[in-house]
Design a protein that fits this description.
Largest sheet of chain A: 16 strands, antiparallel, barrel
CATH topology of chain A: Porin
Number of domains of chain A: 1
Radius of gyration of chain A: 25 Å
Order of helices and strands of chain B: HHH
Helix content of chain B: 40-55%
Strand content of chain B: under 5%
Oligomer: heterodimer
Largest sheet of chain B: none
Largest interface: A-B, 91 and 39 residues
Structural class of chain B: mainly alpha
Shape of chain B: flat
CATH architecture of chain A: Beta Barrel
Order of helices and strands of chain A: HEEEHEEEEEEEEEEEEEEE
Number of helices of chain B: 3
Shape of chain A: globular
CATH class of chain A: Mainly Beta
Structural class of chain A: mainly beta
Strand content of chain A: over 45%
Radius of gyration of chain B: 27 Å
Number of strands of chain A: 18
Distance between the termini of chain B: 82 Å
Helix content of chain A: under 10%
Number of helices of chain A: 2
Number of strands of chain B: 0
Amino acid sequence: MAVINPTTFLLYLATALLFSLSTSAAVLEEDRADVLYHSYEGGGMKIDGPAILLRKKASESVALSAYYYVDTISSASVDVMSTASPYSEERQEGQLGLEYLHDKTTMAFSVRQSDEDDYLAKSVNFNLSHDTFGDLTNLSLGLAFSDNEIRRNGDDLFEEQSQQYRIRAGISQILTKNLSVALNMESVADEGYLNNPYRTVRYIDSSVPAGVGYQSEVYPNTRNSFSTKLSASYYLPYRAALFLHYRYFSDSWQIDANDIELSYRHPFGKTVELELKVRYYQQTQASFYSDLFPHQDAQNFLARDKELSDFDDLTLGLGVTYLIPKQFLINDWRSEASIQWDYITFNYNNFRDPTAEGALGEEPLYGFSAHVIRAFFSVYF
Amino acid sequence: MLHNHYNRALIIVITTSLLGVTGCAQPIEPWVKPYERQNLADPIMRTNRHPIANMHVAHVYEARESARGSEGTGGGGCGCN
């Protein structure tokens, strides 16, 4: 007679309990193809390009996906205009994914590469999600690793490395017939060369007529961060949807950030969906950031990257999706055409515009606005 | 006499606790039945209704803001400088 090991028995029991809370099996998302044109214009930068996303089930339990994305960048931003020359470059990103569904558990694995003249990033990503409690609850866990190679254009000897590790966990819960909520957490750890190799900080230098000197930024070699996001989705009685997201972020560079987003989706008839969005973001500065240092080598770490300063931004967004009527469909594949426009205003509280008129350290504070456009076509087949 | 009262109080406390514990041990049933989820299953309720657009949104914010993580797009970083 076979003897059951108590540990094995407990493991079986726990697995059986976890998997027996509900009986109906989950399904993989439907096959789809998306083609997108994106554009970002603001603050002297213009970034645009295409993107393609393909997703196809190989069987009832396996799905494959492919993603290709291009950024064509031309930059004459305020950082560039104060100490360097405008530049243009291209970034290409590719991603391949595999999803495997077993009963109520979905495992997703993907590899990704992002390539530009002076930056090569390779990453692997693994996610696990499980439906439980009568499919009212979904639990998820994810891991990612990225290896980056940083170069500096015009300097063949420059080559640096950095690595990034991510771990995430989430729970989403259906609370009522019309309300579901989710809590997601993610920790990110970076190590290696985290600077931008081109950017400089400015300091008071009375030995030169302009009174200002420049030196390269120096960042710490590690950065650890933690973020928590709380989301709620609510179905309104007249068939419309309301979404609320709140995220809190903090990191080892003493940056604390909060963002809150409210969006509303409203269908008109059977062919049009309207989406409105408002989002507010605010952050404090990194401990080693300063707009103007008192002298050269003023401290161990030095930064004047406006993304590390104290600032806030506000996004107003509008989106329209047109569901193509049945008589115009190819192969009866359900198709949609969408356009989304975001208007973002950035207000910096301690980053001054060195290209503007004003005494050193008393120039007006910097701010700019950006228009972001996404036009895309989706086919479900 | 005082000893009897003490014993009775102890029995009541234990019985009540046991009732409470067994009450709590009753499994909580999923309270929204599958046939009551048609509103939540409506395509307009999907946060990832447009995945390709969400990936771009996450990329724009990650490039312009210091906060990162928990975007819900399963991203692996900006991959840019």
